[in-house]
Every structure is written in C-alpha cells, then in structure tokens.
Inverse folding.
C-alpha cells in the first residue's frame, strides 16, 4: 500500500499528546512564515514570489500601457505618428504565433527607458529567436486613459520597426 | 461553531478515514504536478529571453542572467521534477525544500521581462507548505495534514490581502464600473497583441454598455475577497471557496484571465471530497489515529 494510504505513523501514539505537539509546531511554523512573508514583501515592493500583497487591478481607473505588433508589407512606408486602434497601418500580427506572452511584450516596451543595441537585440530575440528577421514587424506602444466623461481613450504609437534590413526606432524614443 | 484555527485548518486531533488520506495524497500530488508543469513551462519560455528588464524576487539580489542564453532552465526543470518526485515518494526529507529554492530561480529567470503574474502563487505556497511539513514533522499523517492546512490558510490570507490592496490603493470607489471598462479594453488590446484580433463576448459588451452591471461585477469581487479569510473555518469553507470560484469565472468572462492552476486547487477545496471518496469506497468507518 502506498505510504500516504497507510496509517502506520499513527500507531501507539496517544491522540491528544501527538495532536497538541503538532498544533504547537504548526502555529510556530506559520508564525515564522508570516514574519518572512511580511519582511520579504515589505523589502521588495510588495512582491517576492510566492509571497505578494496581490496588487493586481488595485489601482482603479489608472492609465495603462500595452503593446501590439503589426506586420508591414514590403514597400509600405512607415509613419511614426500615433493612431487609434482602428487606423493602424499594416496587417494584424499575433505574437502567440511566436510563442510570446503579450504581457511580456507590453512590459518590455513600456519599461524600457533606453533602447540601446542590447535591448533592441533582446526584442528581436523575443520575436525571432536566434534567426534573422524574415518580415517587417512594427511594434506599437498602446496607451489608454479614462476621460472625465467615462470614455476610454486609446492611442497606439509606433516604437520600433524590426525588418530584414535592420532596425528603425521612432525618433521620440532614446536609443 | 469551533473557532479554534488549528482544529479547522489541520485537524491533528481528528480521526482519519481512508477517504481523508486519499484526498490529502491527491492534493499533494496536484501540488507536485503543478510545480513540475510550471518548472517546465517557465524553463522553456526562458530560452527565449535575452535580457533582464525588471528583476523580480531573487533577481533583485543576484544577477539572474546566468539562466539566460543556455539550457540551464531545462536542467533546473529536470532537477525540480526529480526532487518533487522524491518528496512525494518520501525518499528525501529536504527534497521539497530544495525543489522550492530551485523554483525561485526558475521564476526569477522567467519573469525578468516586467510581467508580475499571480497565477502560480498558490502552487508555490502549497509547495512551501509541504516542504515545511516534511521538515517539521516526522509522522506522515501530520506532514500531510499540515501541508493541506497551510495551503488553506494562505488561500484565505492571499485573497484577503488582494482586497485590502484594492481598498488601500483606490479606496471604497474601487468598484466603480468605469474601472472595469478600462480593464476590459486593456485585456482586449492584449488579445489583439496575442492573436491579431479581438471579439468581445456578451458579458463584456453588457458590462461596457451598463455601468451598474460593471459596478456590480466589481463589488461582488471585492466583497468575496474581503471575506476570503472565512475559508479558515470549516463551517464556511465550501461557501467561500465557491464564491472565490465565482470571482475567478467572472474575471475569466470579463477580462479573459483564467487562473487555471488556482481554479483546480480551489475545486479540490470546494467539495467534501474525503466523504465522497469514503462513500465511493464504502468505507465510512473511520480508522482511529
């Protein structure tokens, strides 16, 4: 019989004694874990996996920033102007086809302050692994804010073009 | 109603039926399988990461880039699999602890691009519970009862934390339906990024058209989380777990976020499985400890 099905551990041990001792250990262990929990989240901005203050969706109504990708047909000129979601150039491109989590892409784009060659290469690696780009992909940063009337205003700004011939950055971002 | 937390969470004094032992074994097995799933999933994804954007967890204290650009994440996943298998087979008292530490590295390497997910926290905490149970107890029944009770305790605590985070960050106006509009649009952009297209479902359309409905969705979620700590008590446990499951189904329908592992864990806590197993096995007679 499998170990977890057997009750051999329970033989010959008075219930109350064993239970009391086990209870005390449980209380001490959980107390210690709670101390570590509080210390780690306090010293690490609320996150030290698997401990967390679980702040997701805590800031109601705050502006947000995401990212999306459009494939630009060869020969199409690239405009660096912002546009609404219905007016984006190129054709839809789903990052799932490259095995990428869209939230990783969004964070990569929004949290990158300096687009130096290392960071640009990391973005290319994310989209094309170690292979050379075989198509022109335009990466947009999408930002939204809640207007006074309750309307959600969304605007997409092209940031980076990764193409077989090289990479182009929107002049508004720091290389 | 017995308000003794230890009795409600661990039941060290309680008589043990065969159904209870099978159930606790199944819960532990779920934590083991979920741990291995995460280790391999994170490990394979890490192979695509070329730079650290936002260091999380352990990566705030050591340069986690040694896990990038090589097959170390896959070796680590293999080691975690081996160690959890050892832990489940009772072949090593420190196996789960080592697996937990290696999983911290796996997490830090995978989530170094800025995403801070919370879909796997309950599994990580579950593994920690069994790791500590193995160290603290020599009797198998006690280790097993502690592991399960530890998970239940942190299910209650973490969801309650989540409610307080919302109240502290946004106050009582958090359930304002317009906030849900922002999040539905945010997740719609994520879906466009993921697949290239998005089609809102009828629940999302309904919430976007009707602010009262959107507000009610959020209010239900907040109240459920605020009272999640009631899972600590057996009398309330099933009702609260079902409410939390309802919360997750709501999040899935409105924001297209499905916490699969958390939902499976909650389903394992949502029904009187030991009694059901006992009935199936026709062994309602309990074995005395």
């Amino acid at each position: 019989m499998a170990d977890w099905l057997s009750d051999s551990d329970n033989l010959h041990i008075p219930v109350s004694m064993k239970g009391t001792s086990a209870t005390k250990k449980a209380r001490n262990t959980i107390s210690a874990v709670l101390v570590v929990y509080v210390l780690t989240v306090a010293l690490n901005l609320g996150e030290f996996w698997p401990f967390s203050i679980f702040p997701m969706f805590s800031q109601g109504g705050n502006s947000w920033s995401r990212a999306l990708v459009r494939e630009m047909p060869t020969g199409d000129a690239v405009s660096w102007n912002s546009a609404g979601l219905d007016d984006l150039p190129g054709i839809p491109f789903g990052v799932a086809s490259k095995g990428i989590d869209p939230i990783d892409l969004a964070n990569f784009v929004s949290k990158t302050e300096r687009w130096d060659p290392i960071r640009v290469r990391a973005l290319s690696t994310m989209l094309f692994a170690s292979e050379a780009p075989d198509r022109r992909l335009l990466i947009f940063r999408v930002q939204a804010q809640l207007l006074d009337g309750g309307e959600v205003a969304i605007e997409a700004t092209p940031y980076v073009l990764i193409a077989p011939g090289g990479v182009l950055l929107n002049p508004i971002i720091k290389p | 109603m017995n308000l003794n937390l230890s009795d409600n969470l661990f039941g060290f004094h309680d008589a043990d039926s065969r159904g209870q032992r099978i159930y606790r074994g199944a819960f532990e097995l779920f934590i083991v399988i979920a741990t291995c799933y995460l280790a391999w999933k994170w490990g394979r994804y890490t192979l695509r990461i070329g730079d650290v954007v936002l260091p999380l967890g352990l990566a705030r204290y050591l340069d986690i880039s040694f896990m990038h650009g090589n097959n170390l994440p896959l070796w680590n996943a293999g080691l975690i699999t081996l160690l959890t298998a050892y832990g489940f087979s009772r072949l090593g008292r420190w196996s789960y602890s080592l697996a937990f530490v290696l999983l911290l590295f796996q997490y830090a390497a995978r989530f170094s691009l800025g995403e801070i997910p919370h879909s796997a926290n309950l599994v990580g905490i579950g593994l920690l519970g069994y790791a500590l149970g193995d160290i603290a107890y020599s009797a198998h029944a006690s280790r097993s009862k502690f592991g399960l009770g530890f998970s239940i305790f942190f299910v209650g605590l973490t969801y309650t934390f989540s409610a307080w985070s919302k109240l502290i960050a946004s106050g009582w106006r958090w359930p304002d339906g317009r906030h849900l509009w922002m999040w539905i649009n945010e997740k719609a952009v994520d879906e466009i990024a993921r697949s290239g297209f998005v089609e809102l479902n009828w629940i999302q359309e309904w919430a976007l058209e009707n602010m009262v409905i959107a507000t009610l969705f959020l209010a239900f979620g907040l109240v459920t989380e605020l009272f999640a700590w009631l899972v600590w008590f057996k009398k309330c446990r099933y009702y609260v777990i079902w409410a939390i499951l309802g919360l997750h189904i709501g999040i899935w329908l409105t924001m297209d976020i499905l916490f699969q592992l958390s939902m499976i864990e909650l389903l394992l806590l949502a029904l009187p499985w030991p009694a059901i197993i006992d009935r199936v096995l026709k062994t309602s007679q309990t074995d005395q400890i």
